[in-house]
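pasting for ref
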Amino acid sequence: MKKLFVAALKEEVPNLNFFHFTGVGKINATHAITQLILKHQPEEIVNFGSVGSLNKELKGLIEVTKFYQRDMDVRGLMNLKLGETPFDSIQEIITNDAGYSCGTGDSFVQSKIEMNVDVVDMEAYALAKICKLHNVDFKCFKFISDNADENASSDWLENCKKGSQLFLEMAKNFSWVK
């Protein structure tokens, strides 16, 4: 099985040289993942990165299996819920009921948001959607780098190092990395 590993930034996966990088945000992620799919034609894409947790009980490395667009907001124009895109048949992406939910948006979260999700990031929904559209299996593992609060920016970089080590240990258990 041809598998690709993607992360937004090399800072999220220090010393893991088998990753491709998408850049930060939904547009960069969409562009990069589309190019990678067209070039490599993988059967599966595995995403790893950092997330802010809205669920204060979550720690460490988690699998995310439910993806939502937290900054799509046309409630003032149409009778849609926060996160729903007008005229789009894909409003949520669920790869497995067992994992955690992620709200993706183009903002770094440092306070409570209106959407009820476990974690927040800036790329996962875009990656999951492009994989769905191209019939590529998608797995997503995230390291809780912060609590999406006023301390989020100071916690992020230091915690990325811890997360990449946990991901590498988990990946070896799944024979993803030799």
